[in-house]
Amino acid sequence: MDSGSRQARRDALRRILASGALALALPPARAQAPRAKATASGTGKPPPSRRAELPRASDLAADAAASRRGRLPILLFFDRDECPYCEQALREYLVPFSRDEWQGKALFRQVGIDRPDPVIDFAGARTTHQALAARYGMELSPTVLVVDASGRPLGEPIVGLLTVDFYGAYIDNALKAAQAKLAA
Hints:
By secondary structure, the protein is an alpha+beta fold. The chain has a domain at 60-183: Glutaredoxin. It contains five helices and six strands. The chain has a four-stranded mixed beta sheet, with helices on both faces. Strands 3-4 form a two-stranded antiparallel sheet. Helix 3 (84-99) crosses helix 5.
């Protein structure tokens, strides 16, 4: 391969990377739905029923107590009602992990970024799923965050479905790292 074609490939790759970085830097567009008829998802339609779901976060203070007793990490799965990638992540990875490899070794809870559902936070205060997601800075879905009994992150969040071939490994590694931190 001559240096001219090599340079052309580098230039093309730089343009691709620059456009991807620009797309990530732009603020997400937010749809404005009529408030009177808006549902949790903001579409005016009832939320779609999912074939796979984790237990919804409802009392994180109680989950924190269980986490402390068993030194269990808590996996928070942040999703949106109309997110097909969330459905796939739940169906193919998170629900099976919660029932098989990680049953009894970690707590799995689902938090709706776009849902006003009530929840008791880690400190015992009443809040909503939306407010809890905002506290953690969650805007993109799906996002997985593993936390300790105080709600402190034990690692970096896993944002998006990433590479499907490795998504299960990312989750498994995050849980193993969190488990090791809690055991120390």
